[in-house]
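Box S1 | Example of a co-folding query
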Amino acid sequence: MLRHGLQMARGLCQLLSDKFSVGLHRNIMKHLLPINATGHAWSPLRNIRAVTQMAPWPFSSSQPRDYSLPNASWSAEMQRLYDQYSSMCEVETEGSEKKKGAWRRLPSYNRTLKYATGGRCLSRMLQAKARLFTRNIEEQGAGFEYVVFINKEEKTCVCVFQAGHLLEGPPGHVHGGAIATIIDSVTGTHATYISGPVMTANLTINYRSPIPLGSVVLVHSALDKVEGRKTFISCQVTSSDGAKLHTEATGLFVSINVSHLFGA
Ligand SMILES: CCCCCCCCCCCC(=O)SCCNC(=O)CCNC(=O)[C@H](O)C(C)(C)COP(=O)(O)OP(=O)(O)OC[C@H]1O[C@@H](n2cnc3c(N)ncnc32)[C@H](O)[C@@H]1OP(=O)(O)O
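Box S1 (continued) | Returned holo structure for dodecyl-COA
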């Protein structure tokens, strides 16, 4: 019991204090530790905080499956768009010197926590069967096939999304809830990139034209403004050539302390 408690505390510390591999959480500690009336950071984890500063949090070398990489289910159009955005991404060159590129592909796992150093034990103890909603269909191509790219200079985001046959709503077309899901995921990821840990407070969606099942669409996400804890994002889902507007949305994301996720 005590051993499990210590393991959990250590895993939690690493989770809360270090960076995601996608580099989203430079500011995580400031979000994590609320300041009380006396001006001191409050945290039940305060006493073990020093330990966490020793431990970097790269993903483990056990080669977790990155769901945003191409697979056999991808259509030629999906692959073409993946190649197009990948060609504009930063790349590691020889001597690990980075060639500058404005875009960055974000990896995507079905349970990020499981693949973080120190997170394996924690992932067993916290809702062990939990999986990311968009990444829990095993059959390739049946559900959400998508890859997210961030433009670090323009602070925009693009997702290439191929909707599989299990996402049907109206016959032959994508379910509105599935469209909302991909929009929430992309804009939520975008807001996290901008502001650190957030939760969706409001998502307003206008469905303009149906999305055929199996087609490839682009989800464009743009930062409107940041006001204190509030990050406002707008989003458009278009055909892959950009000619047809399928869906428009706006989202409000509120910054949270990670303790919010634990009921604090
Ligand atoms: C690596 C990454 C991979 C990530 C890959 C995965 C990405 C998936 C992303 C999925 C994201 C989700 O679906 S998240 C799940 C769905 N969302 C939720 O379950 C959230 C449930 N709601 C909440 O927990 C809470 O209401 C919060 C956290 C949103 C806000 O609560 P709070 O922290 O107490 O803040 P509160 O004081 O109420 O509000 C702060 C400010 O926001 C405003 N505000 C709050 N809610 C609203 C609202 N609905 N509409 C307008 N304004 C609002 C308030 O007026 C206030 O403005 P002012 O007075 O300061 O001006």
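The helical segments are 2-17, 28-32, 49-52, 76-86, 119-125, 176-195. The chain has one domain: 2-262.
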